[in-house]
Every structure is written in C-alpha cells, then in structure tokens.
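[User] Could I get a sequence and structure tokens?

[Assistant]
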Amino acid sequence: MASPRKFFVIGNWKMNVDKNRINGIVKTMNKASLDPNTEAVVGCPSCYLSHAREHLAPTIGIAAQNCYKVARGNFSGEISPEMIKDCGCDWVIIGHPERRTIFNEPDSFIAEKVAHAQEAGMKIIACLCETTDDRREGRTEEVLFRQLKSLASAISDWSRVVIAFEALWASNTGVFATNQQVQEALSLVRKWLRNNVSDKVADTTRIIYAGSVSSSNCREMATLKDLDGFLVGSAALKPDIVDIINARRTHVTELLTSLRIEEHQG
C-alpha cells in the first residue's frame, strides 16, 4: 500500500544568497522538470521573500526561516507570521538547529512560536535537533522525545506541520549518517506520535531528514520506510536540489525500467 504522505523537499538558503544568486537558483528550478509527486519549498531570508515569490514558479512554495511569537509590536529585527503571509508565502521554519544551538532558543520559546504561527494560518516545518554530544552520549531518544513533547503541546492542526529531524553531528562535519541511523531516528519520532498523539497523526505527518543530503545519497535514502523527504542545506544552492526533489521519481523510473528489461529478457 502506497504511503498517503506526499514527498516533501525544502531547500534552505540560510544566509547565503543575494538577489543575483536567488535569480540563478530560481532560473534553474523554474526550468527543471520537477517531480509533481514531490512538494518543493525553498527557505528564504526574510528580506528576499517577496522577490523570491515574484520570480519563483507558483508550484514551488516559499518558507521564511524563522518568525516571532506575536503578530506585531516593538520587536526590532523580528518578523511575524502575518508579515510572511503578506509577502505571499505560507510556510515557516521554526526551531531550526541553528536557532536552538547558536541563538539558544529553548523548547518553550519554539513552542510559543509554533502556536502563534498556527493561529496565523501558517504551514510549519518544525525542527528537531540531535547534537554531536547527544549522539555520542546515547541521548537520541531522550532529546527527540523532549522536543516532540514541547512541540506537540503547541500544535492544533497536524495536517499543516512537517517535522524535520536534523542530525547536527552529520551536518558539515565530515561524518555521514547511515541509512540505518536515519531510519532509526525517524522511526522513534513516528513511534512517539503514535503513542502520544494518535495513529492518524503518526500515519499522516511527514517526517523529513536533514544532515548533508546531496544528489549522491538522496536516492537510496528516499526509500527508507519512515522518511518523507529532506531539509537540504548547502546542496540547495546548487543544481543538485533538482536531483534531490526528484529523488523518488528517479528511483521509481529506474526500477520500472529494470523490471521491463527483466520481463523482456524472460
């Protein structure tokens, strides 16, 4: 039985673009033949949201990389979900590992942002983070479950949430997560949802992986049972993002071709 969950790939540009570079990425993505069975989104710096929305194909979503927990007020430098929507964008990344580890955002603050973003009608990529120390000290289950518990308390509509698991120990560290390690972590997340939210949420919520995803490892990883897509970092700035968006289509096409060859030879 096919999964009811549509494959999801978000390419996060982080703080690595200007208008000229965005135009180049947009040109590549707009010209590419992207798998219609994959929902494609880009994570854009807030100052370029309107520019990206104006030039990127309407079939590709745009996400802000962060937001604040209220609609308006004296919060210099922040951006609200309402502002993001006013730029024509309906996705936001919340709790990214860089927000957690560099800017020291605690679980409770991230949950407040998630709650308000949902109230504002945004769709959310809610991030979970496992650090190098977490992995080394065997705290994977502990940290994932703690973060999930905090997130779940803030989520009212799971159909508008994608959960992203980032193995920070495998992000630009020279260490790569094995498919088994990825599947084990994603399975833990889905198990927690089943035991603490509902079977329906566990079966329908998309769980994606982040951690040095590239055109060379995405196709095999895309076959994992509990993986529904990727949050892509540096590869999102390159033509590789097209291969990653098409990770499942390429695999299925080659599989069908192989089967046809075997039938013909048989």
Strands lie at 7-12, 38-44, 61-64, 91-94, 123-130, 161-167, 206-210, 229-232. Residues 251-264 have pLDDT under 50 and may be disordered. The chain is about 45% helix and 15% strand.
